[in-house]
Amino acid sequence: MGPQKTSKSTQASLFLCIAVAFSIVQCRVLDDCPSNGDCGEGLYCFSCPQGFSGNRCVRSTITDQFTLVNNSLPFNKYAFLTTHNSYAIDGEPPRTGVPRVTFTNQEDNVTQQLKNGARALMLDTYDFEGDVWLCHSFGGQCHDYTAFEPAIETLREIETFLAENPSEIVTIILEDYVQAPNGLTKVFSNAGLMKYWFPVTSMPQNGQDWPLVSDMVAKNQRLLVFTSMKSKQESEGIAYQWNYMVENQYGDGGMKAGSCPNRGESSPLDDKSKSLVLVNYFRSVPMKQLTCVDNSADLINMLHTCYGAAGNRWANFVAVDYYKRSEGGGSFQAVDTLNGKLLCGCDDVHACAEQFVAAADIPTGQGKIAEECSSDADCEAGLYCFSCIADFQGSRCVRSITTNQFRLLNNSLPYNKYAYLTTHNSFAIEGSALFAAHPEAIRLTFTNQEDSITQQLNNGVRALMLDTYDLKGDVWLCHSFGGKCHDFTAFGPAINTLKEIEAFLAANPSEIVTLILEDYVEAPSGLTKVFTDAGLKKYWFPVTSMPQNGEDWPLVRDMLAKNQRLVVFTSKKSKQESEGIAYQWNFMVENQYGNNGMEAGNCRNRAESSSLDDRTKSLVLVNYFRTIPFNQFSCEDNSDYLINMLDTCHGASGNRWANFVAVDFYKRSEGGGSFQALDTLNGRLLCGCSDVQACVHGSTTACKP
Ligand SMILES: *[C@@H]1O[C@H](CO)[C@@H](O)[C@H](O)[C@H]1NC(C)=O
Ligand SMILES: *[C@@H]1O[C@H](CO)[C@@H](O)[C@H](O)[C@H]1NC(C)=O
Ligand SMILES: *[C@@H]1O[C@H](CO)[C@@H](O)[C@H](O)[C@H]1NC(C)=O
User: Secretion signal: which residues (predicted)?
Assistant: First the structure.
């Protein structure tokens, strides 16, 4: 029953979701397994006699929707796995001196539940032994034979998780019998949880959207607590659950196929003045052996039934017993389904990431890479119509946008484990207006790019090389020689470009931009001033957090959580001390630029850089552009030659793949160009595959064909 059901439901899913089904096949969900070690990452070996014969690999961890897609939507636009009676755990030793005589609802401890992706916990709180305890009981009394543990212990596990995971939000739903005045406030304070408290005053009163998850993370308001006791909203500032949430009937009454009645305490499910929807799906008396069946297709069916009952709203919380028991995907697949529905209307959240990547460009014709075209509109999304006269006749569809490696896979690795497309002389743009003092001035210098800075960033460029000079009492971007900027070589005041970068960072809270400055500014604090004026200091990644000795950089997701999303390097050593701007050669190695860096088979270091294989620098940059740019040839330069040079430099760097690849006219290519070069690098870096598109979610070794 298990395997057939799985393949049927994948056939029914949307075209975009096929890649997802495929990666599950790779991960070997439902393959026979003698032991956990035989199952891929995110799976464990489990037996569900009612669902399948023998032992098979089933899921054991959630997909993190924030890292897979993004966290820039309101809190109520995401779904969260919820454990029912999270504290009632098998094998918890009795703590009261008498044996416990009550049932359990979970097998993992709360730390494990959180690590595997549970993000909401249902806890029953009671006065007991002069303290607050977690207890199973009836009639509002906790007894020594039904008590599990003092609440402080579970709350401390939650505190540890929040401290270690600065991008995650945890919701606690209390069935609350505590009568002691400020009893809950005291135990939350003692557990160190008040610093994460999301204030009840910021919760929407009338069915509006919640704040954005990215803002909740930025403010560190990452703990939501709901109580079932109305008076506590007033007396202790703990949100009364039924002001904000609707919920279906729990227990056996909530498991009748095709019906989704509301719980007595909740307003009707379709009351849209409450923005959150919770679906319970567990038996009145837990039956461990049957839970794997309950948590599978029946659960997903109930989510559809409750969607209708809730006025066409998908649940935000799905509460289950023994959350890891399933016939394959279980409660994890249920949450992936909900997030897919909530985020992009697809059957699985993985499809949202892929859809987002594909939807990022406007033209939507049929033309595939290298097929003939007469205009951009003839080409598929992500391609444009281009003529590379050095290589082919006529016009063909070629790539125009990078694959977003954070969205396609995840952003939970160090910054130096990813590759970033870099534009050389990003500011030297064809046809850009003249800003020089004399309106009649003519610019007498070459250009290296065609798109504006904003277009470059929107197409996936993530590192910009800018040459900064003193000019007219300000900082300007300029092509020049000998450290002087002239009217006839100046492009524009740096502030204009920096403001474009600021706007991009503000609009894209999951992205990081790196600036590499060839810096001739002598004015004291000249750069600090212009970065401040552009509003960029708030994104500054501090030089003190950069690895000094070849260690890994911080994780990308932590850089996002701290909003430290602008990494700036200067070529002027003294500024690291004087202005806190990182001196590039302390942190990065780089090959020779210009014609000398384009000799096939040869990758030597640039003079200012230590040797490429110096592993005390964690970042590797490969330059691949001519000394004098020739836009007609860049399409050839940016194609196979570039990828060959990346291989050569990989060897020269002591078997390290480049993090930055710097090119001129980045969109000119014979087909895949610099975008394909990036996909190759990210594939190598992230999963050892020859293309990042071949990486399989959650695996460091498997490659799709
Ligand atoms: C939770 O369980 C894991 C695995 O058994 C164990 O290593 C860890 O110490 C437990 N944590 C707590 C707080 O009980
Ligand atoms: C976040 O993802 C959602 C769903 O795919 C999308 O609509 C939204 O535009 C994304 N936001 C950003 C800033 O990327
Ligand atoms: C992120 O992706 C990498 C590469 O595929 C993988 O090794 C890692 O386990 C993933 N991390 C998470 C938290 O999914």
Answer: 1-27
